[in-house]
């Protein structure tokens, strides 16, 4: 718990000790067990998005929970995960401004995900948020959009951070617009504008998701026809029937000639 204290975790005393660490690990395991699809990594083209994918999945999961029995343990678990994520992306040679905005947005996403629930709104979380622990700020509703506007002026430099902020906006970050009457319209405007900026950086989307014929080699071959087992018997029957009909017609013609000859002899 010394590391937690250094980062400013001051929840109730029951969260300080080996038992709290055990509950935090148990909480993390349980949340991963019920949402296994968010354990997958390496699917995002953006390293910042890829590193935060488990926490983004957890944020979606938390928004659907009706209750949580150990919020201090949950707080400690998320705090440790954010610390781990930042240690992972720090060696990736990003600008300090990108990393700060990334950490700030990640904390804001998790704070709003918890505070939007009935069980988190009136919990200890409101007294000690992740933003206050990592950035010494009690509310990030204003600064997030300030950072977004500032970084949007240099989108190439901050592309990965802007893409992560865009995903968080799509996941429901509202900030200062959460309590405004026209907040939904303003949020949609910001998302649309940011999407246009990022679309220019990524280029036009592909017309086809896959190229099904790209790895197919053309070959000149024909499918072998499989004849049924009764085919020879049918062919034999047709040959015999044809032969019989020809023989019968020939025999009838000869018979008529013979009868005509006999009839001529008898008339002499």
Description of the structure:
The chain has 268 residues and is mostly helical. It starts with a helix and ends with a helix. It is rod-shaped. It has helices spanning 2-6, 18-34, 47-64, 71-89, 96-115, 118-121, 130-135, 143-152, 159-171, 183-202, 231-266. α9 (159-171) packs antiparallel against α10 (183-202). It contains eleven helices and no strands. It is 63% helix and 0% strand. The protein has two domains: 2-202, Serine Threonine Protein Phosphatase 5, Tetratricopeptide repeat (Alpha Horseshoe); 236-268. The longest helix has 36 residues, at 231-266.
List the helices and strands and how they pair.
Elements: H1 2-6, H2 18-34, H3 47-64, H4 71-89, H5 96-115, H6 118-121, H7 130-135, H8 143-152, H9 159-171, H10 183-202, H11 231-266
Q: Please report which band the strand proportion falls in: under 5%, 5-15%, 15-25%, 25-35%, 35-45% or over 45%.
A: under 5%
> What's the tally of helices?
11
Beginning-to-end CA distance, first to last residue? 140 Å
User: What's the total number of strands?
Assistant: 0
According to CATH, the fold-level topology of the largest domain is Serine Threonine Protein Phosphatase 5, Tetratricopeptide repeat
Tell me the structural class. Answer: mainly alpha
Low-confidence stretches: 1-16, 31-39
Number of domains: 2
CATH homologous superfamily designation of the largest domain: Type IV / VI secretion system, DotU
Main sheet, how many strands, which sense, barrel? none
Q: Under the CATH scheme, which architecture of the largest domain would be assigned?
A: Alpha Horseshoe
N-to-C SSE string, H for helix and E for strand: HHHHHHHHHHH
* Bulk shape: rod-shaped
What share of the residues lie within helices?
Answer: 55-70%
Mean pLDDT: 81
